[in-house]
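User: Show me sequence and structure for the first protein, then do the same for the second.

Assistant: Starting with the first protein.
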Amino acid sequence: MPDGRSLVTGWTDGKIRAFTPQSGRLMYIIKDGHRGQADSNTVGSQVSGVQMQSRYGHLVPQGVTCLCPSIDCTNLITGGFDGEIKLW
């Protein structure tokens, strides 16, 4: 975050995790961040629950794809593979 008190990350498992910048200790997890979803052109099965294989054999990322904190560190905006934008 811009205030330097946490490092917020988005993961392919759909969770948002925050860590302390000095020690790397986990501060919190937002478990229901974003879900991945396969389209009708996808074949194969989930790999570890976080990626799907496309019909061309490429792995398609899922979960949280972007995040941006507010300048005052009171809000977090995230986007995901599910096509949603969320304000936390």
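Switching to the second protein now.
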Amino acid sequence: MTSTRSDGLLVALAGAGLLALTAWAWAGRSARARWWAGRTFGPQLALGVAPGLGLLLVGAGVLTAGGAPAALPVAPLLLAGAVLELAGIFALLPGWWGPRWYRQRRRGR
């Protein structure tokens, strides 16, 4: 295994870890998992920036480890990650995006 391939796998694993953390926060099964819902920039971070960055890292890691043959299957991941990242940064996330418990909480305000 070359250094580039192992570096790509490490980046992909970091992205997968970030996506797992995002899934835990979205599930919101505990107060600790819902930390982001009451913060000023928490929803932007948990609904856009974190999952977008996770997708970008997974895509970039797979692309680095797999080379040119991985480019076509990874392109949608990178595009979705970039869209989520920008939507989160600029607070352009639609009202229907996010876990059900968070959408119901926002409607109840």
